[in-house]
Backbone:
């Protein structure tokens, strides 16, 4: 498995190797030893999956605050999506910066988004399915969000991104400038 880093510390891209023949392929999609070597000691407690029926569906930007902060290992099992992580660690040299990656079943890419980041995505094909492992259970009182199109962050969303697909909750999310400090940077 190939592991790539970004200019924002903590985020990793895991790219499983597909071993294939005329029947299809085989791939290891997760190895605890390799994961721990590259991101540290995190235990996954829950797997989540969601489908976006419409092309251009925007979900996010979401995160959970302490004491129920979550890391996420995200992959796409059907369709295609543009996946985004935004650094919310106050004092980080990359605070407010973002990383985006196109995930598809064919490319097999998986984005690791550690605690301290907001996460969102846009489906770039109809009937897209996203699957992700999380390091903490869902907590309604710690469920937070950030505005998907905050100009201070400047995410370059795909042209397909359709604001009409936002949930009522995501239409009301705060700007980064209005977000309380939920996470602080530590090296």
Residues:
């Amino acid at each position: 498995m190939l592991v790539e880093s970004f200019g924002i510390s903590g985020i990793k891209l895991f790219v499983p190797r597909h071993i294939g023949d005329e029947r299809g392929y085989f791939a290891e999609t997760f190895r605890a030893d390799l994961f721990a070597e590259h991101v540290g000691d995190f235990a996954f407690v829950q797997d989540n999956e969601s489908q976006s029926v419409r092309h251009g569906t925007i979900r996010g930007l979401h995160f959970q605050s302490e004491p129920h902060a979550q890391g996420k290992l995200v992959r796409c099992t059907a369709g295609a999506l543009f996946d985004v992580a935004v650094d919310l660690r106050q004092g980080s040299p990359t605070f407010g910066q973002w990383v985006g990656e196109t995930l598809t079943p064919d490319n097999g890419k998986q984005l690791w988004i550690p605690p301290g980041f907001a996460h969102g995505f846009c489906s770039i094909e109809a009937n897209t399915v996203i699957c992700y492992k999380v390091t903490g259970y869902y907590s309604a009182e710690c469920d937070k969000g950030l505005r998907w199109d905050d100009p201070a962050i400047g995410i370059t969303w795909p042209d397909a991104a359709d604001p009409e697909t936002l949930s009522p909750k995501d239409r009301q999310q705060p700007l980064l400038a209005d977000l309380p400090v939920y996470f602080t940077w530590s090296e």
User: Anything to note?
Assistant: Residues 60 and 170 are 6 Å apart (CA to CA). DSSP finds two helices and 15 strands in the chain. The radius of gyration is 16 Å. The mean pLDDT is 95.
